[in-house]
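Supplementary Methods. Inverse-folding protocol.

Structures were first reduced to a discrete structure-token string of length 400. This string, shown here, constituted the complete conditioning input.
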């Protein structure tokens, strides 16, 4: 039985912190090669950077959760679980900023391989927590510069960094467009983005020193770690894991499935060759995102044999597996998205079911491409477009 909260802990913060740390340990999420990360998280706990108003999804909309009105609920939202973010900003009914889930923060910092004395550029300040953790690692000889597109969160992050003693010579926060990087401090030893991009901006590569490392969420479905080539003319590296990431501010997702379906475009029904329930497999979804970058695949809940597809423009599909295991597809619009997904699925099976960790990316000044298992011979055939649907991250990755 756990001990009751003490008088200085009315919202159970210490208990929740310890529980979350234990959960990460039980799941093997604290990286052995980067023991500094756990020490930094213990010294700079996430609740110190959470705003007093969070937003909780009630099943149909985001509703405010204020610390003053419900301190226990607020604390539980901050420390909900290893893979649960805390939404800190809602714009037009959509979540636009969050305190990222702790497991993903830990994993990305591990992938960055930051060292004491490094000059680090962070793109997407958010609450300031990630910048504080980076400053804890780089130390007084290093430098962390963070760029935030929204002036209000940037100001709030500055205040929290000051309260926790991680401003001044250690962290500088600027308001700007993260896609432009921050040329005034280049070249950087490390660059890290906290929001997803469809394409890695070349400016990030150009502002990183040869041999430097860039870690960024790509396509809202995973994060990649790139190393800049010795000649500075390219960057290449492996995908590091699956995760759900918010997109860059102002990203146009196109029309929703409901909007496209409401056009009344005639549909056709036919068999689908696979069990739709297998689309809960994050590695399969990642492969589909690579091969069909403009198709969103939205699987149903766990155990639900349904999925929805759309291309953000004019084509849609609904997949369903019945109780007898037979799957059907109902699709409409100029494209046959169910057929396209079936083709991507066949590629994944023929390639011996590659995991996200088998994929990598190469970025050049005017082009980027994804490859599987080998950067020279494993280029994946893809067509341009927007990213696929985001899923919860996986773990157990090789060290790269």
């Amino acid at each position: 039985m756990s001990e009751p909260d003490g008088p200085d802990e009315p919202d159970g913060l210490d208990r929740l912190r310890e529980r979350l740390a234990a959960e990460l340990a039980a799941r093997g999420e604290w990286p052995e090669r980067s023991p500094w990360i756990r020490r930094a998280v213990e010294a700079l706990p996430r609740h110190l950077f959470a705003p007093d108003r969070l937003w909780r999804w009630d099943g149909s909309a985001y509703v405010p959760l204020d610390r003053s009105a419900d301190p226990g609920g607020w604390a539980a939202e901050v420390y909900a679980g290893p893979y649960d973010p805390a939404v800190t900003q809602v714009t037009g009914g959509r979540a636009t900023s969050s305190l990222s889930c702790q497991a993903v923060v830990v994993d990305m910092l591990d992938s960055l391989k930051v060292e004491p004395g490094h000059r680090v550029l962070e793109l997407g300040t958010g609450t300031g927590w990630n910048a504080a953790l980076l400053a804890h690692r780089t130390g007084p000889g290093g430098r962390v510069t963070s760029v935030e597109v929204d002036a209000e969160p940037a100001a709030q992050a500055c205040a929290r960094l000051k309260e926790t003693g991680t401003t001044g010579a250690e962290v500088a926060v600027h308001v700007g467009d993260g896609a432009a990087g921050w040329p005034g401090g280049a070249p950087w030893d490390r660059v890290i983005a906290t929001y997803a991009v469809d394409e890695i901006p070349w400016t990030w590569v150009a502002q990183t020193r040869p041999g430097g490392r860039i870690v960024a969420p790509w396509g809202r479905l995973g994060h990649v770690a790139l190393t800049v080539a010795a000649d500075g003319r390219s960057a290449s590296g492996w995908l590091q894991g699956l995760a759900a990431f918010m997109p860059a501010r102002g990203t146009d997702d196109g029309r929703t499935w409901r909007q496209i379906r409401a056009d009344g475009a005639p549909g056709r029904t036919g068999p689908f060759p696979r069990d739709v329930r297998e689309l809960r497999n994050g590695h399969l979804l990642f492969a589909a995102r690579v091969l069909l970058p403009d198709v969103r695949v939205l699987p149903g809940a766990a155990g639900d044999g349904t999925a929805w597809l759309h291309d953000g423009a004019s084509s849609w599909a609904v997949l369903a597996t019945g109780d007898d295991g037979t799957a059907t597809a109902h699709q409409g619009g100029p494209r046959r998205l169910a057929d396209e997904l079936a083709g991507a699925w066949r590629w994944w099976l023929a390639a011996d079911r590659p995991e996200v960790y088998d994929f990598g990316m190469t970025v050049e000044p005017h082009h980027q491409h994804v490859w599987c298992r080998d950067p020279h011979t494993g280029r994946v055939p893809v067509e341009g477009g927007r990213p696929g649907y985001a899923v919860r991250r996986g773990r157990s990755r090789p060290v790269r």
